[in-house]
Amino acid sequence: MPSAQKVIKVTGQKEYEDARKSARTWLLDHLAEAPQFEMAVNEAMNNAVVHGMGHGADIVMIELTALQSEVKVTVSDNGIGFEPPASLFEEGHDQAGDMLQCAANEMWERGRGLWMMKAMSDHLHIHGRGNKVTLIKYKNSSFTNDS
Ligand SMILES: Nc1ncnc2c1ncn2[C@@H]1O[C@H](COP(=O)(O)OP(=O)(O)O)[C@@H](O)[C@H]1O
Ligand SMILES: [Mg+2]
Fold first, then answer.
1. Looking at residue 98, which CATH number applies to its domain?
2. Between 20 and 30 A from 109 (CA), which of 43, 85, 99, 127?
3. In this protein, which residues make up the domain named Histidine kinase/HSP90-like ATPase (predicted)?
């Protein structure tokens, strides 16, 4: 049972700025780790708007859900979707290294976002042909109630 939920719809580039602001405000209200996680959520939103809407999507939906122990965000668009690189989810693969290598190579202006989303979340799931991305960040679980 979610303790809080928000759905944001973006149907044009103009709404995007407002959507970013409301996602940020919601995350700050519901998650101590919001600043870090927000980077990942921003990137997913940016991808849906730039690549999704740039390739046929006319709507982007952002769903933010606060559960007891985690915050879950899904970002979906109805564009062409994409196939993520297989190494993104490869066990033991150095994703952070890939991201840095990508950032250091001046010829590779693009392609860091997916690695960054993975690094800034506790769980990243890219559904099907990449029209939907789920990001999960666990809430700080250091609080115990056993006294
Ligand atoms: N929502 C999306 N719709 C279509 N293609 C996408 C979407 N998200 C990502 N992609 C594809 O995956 C690639 C990698 O994404 P990313 O790592 O964020 O790099 P960048 O956004 O800088 O190109 C993009 O260049 C694009 O081709
Ligand atoms: Mg990107």
1. 3.30.565.10
2. 127
3. 32-137
